[in-house]
Specification:
By secondary structure, this protein is α/β, with parallel strands linked by helices. The chain has a single domain, classed as Acetylglutamate kinase-like (Carbamate kinase). The protein is built from eight helices and eleven strands. The mean pLDDT is 94.
Amino acid sequence: MKYSRILLKLSGESLMGGQAYGIDPQRLGEYASQIAGVARRGCQIGIVIGGGNIFRGLQGAAKGMDRIQGDYMGMMATVINSMALQSALEKEGVKAVLLSGLAIDPVAEKMSSRRAIDYLENGYVVIMACGTGNPFFTTDSGAALRAVEIHADVLLKGTRVDGVYTADPEKDKTAVKYKELRFAEAYEKKLKIMDLTAFTLCEENHVPIYVFDMDTLGNLGKVVEGEEIGTLVH
């Protein structure tokens, strides 16, 4: 196994599957199955999931809503997704605990790096909701922060695309996939991998980012075992 402790970042939109909104039970089950399979091999897994399938703070702000209030609403959306994933993992027979950047009794315990690491070392999948717990920060930034806090070997960004390309492969058929990138190179090329705050956190704390297609069954296991199916940024 190449990575013994990972931080998996999932987008909220990915949970929609083929739906226009909300959580697709089939997609949720597929994700839980992949995560459970990796956990059973002994990999320690921290997870951060977005809330864009339910609500985005920036969308609310664009419609005249207070940005801070909208961001907190977005954090609540990540709690709903995290609870759904926790339940799906438990159905798979995996111990899963929910920590939160905001105190939400009795749904989740308050996030702390020591608490998260303790759970990881005791065989739990640790789902960390509410991003950083602060407005104006994305869940990408939350994922980068949590990856640093739990001393993850890598931040795995699960997407619907199998890596980073020179252009959007869904729009440009001539786009070429990168196998590997340096952080500085990604900056220079203005590649939209994660927001700059998240990117800088990972670069300064020497946490590599691996971008891969999470929607294909079995891919998470392949990445953890070291198969080169995505793009490594380091």
